[in-house]
């Protein structure tokens, strides 16, 4: 079992920055044992989409629209995964969800809203 709790969302002007954090807890053997860890987002009226992912080998993946602006990182000691959002655009406005796959099962956080004003 894994519980994911996000923090760090908010309102920011275009061009600004935010840092999202996700703390993982539960009956798992640390985030190094998690197969995939990352972030999805869902804008109003749109489908949820993958933003960034770290695989258990350390490989990272970012969707094309955020490359060069977003950075995903993992703190193994603290069991956290973070998403640094720079050069934010109004189209980045969405609820951002922490996500992981562990033991063949997907887990989701409750989501944290990010609003980028123009």
Based on the model shown, name its key terms.
single chain, 118 residues, mainly beta, four-stranded antiparallel β-sheet, 0% helix, 57% strand, globular
Summarize the structure.
This protein is mainly beta. The chain has strands spanning 2-7, 10-13, 18-26, 36-42, 49-55, 60-62, 70-75, 80-85, 94-102, 105-108, 112-117.
Written overview of the protein:
Helix content is 0%, strand content 57%. The strands form 2 sheets. Strands 2, 4, 5, 6, 9, 10 and 11 form a 7-stranded mixed beta sheet that branches. By secondary structure, it is mostly beta strands. It is built from no helices and 11 strands. The chain has strands at 2-7, 10-13, 18-26, 36-42, 49-55, 60-62, 70-75, 80-85, 94-102, 105-108, 112-117.
Shape: globular
Q: What structural class results from the helix and strand content?
A: mainly beta
Low-confidence stretches: none
What summary fits the major beta sheet? 7 strands, mixed
Query: Mean of the pLDDT scores?
Result: 93
Strands, helices and their partners?
Blueprint: E1 2-7, E2 10-13, E3 18-26, E4 36-42, E5 49-55, E6 60-62, E7 70-75, E8 80-85, E9 94-102, E10 105-108, E11 112-117
């Amino acid at each position: 079992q894994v519980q994911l709790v996000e923090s760090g969302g908010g309102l920011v002007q275009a061009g600004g920055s935010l840092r999202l954090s996700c703390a993982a807890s539960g009956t798992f053997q640390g985030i190094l044992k998690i197969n995939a860890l990352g972030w999805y987002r869902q804008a109003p009226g749109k489908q949820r989409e993958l933003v960034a992912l770290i695989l258990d080998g350390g490989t990272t993946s970012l969707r094309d629209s955020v490359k060069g602006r977003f950075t995903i990182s993992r703190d193994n000691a603290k069991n956290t995964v973070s998403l640094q959002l720079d050069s934010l655009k109004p189209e980045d406005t969405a609820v951002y969800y922490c996500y992981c796959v562990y033991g063949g099962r997907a887990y989701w956080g409750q989501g944290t809203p990010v609003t980028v004003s123009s």
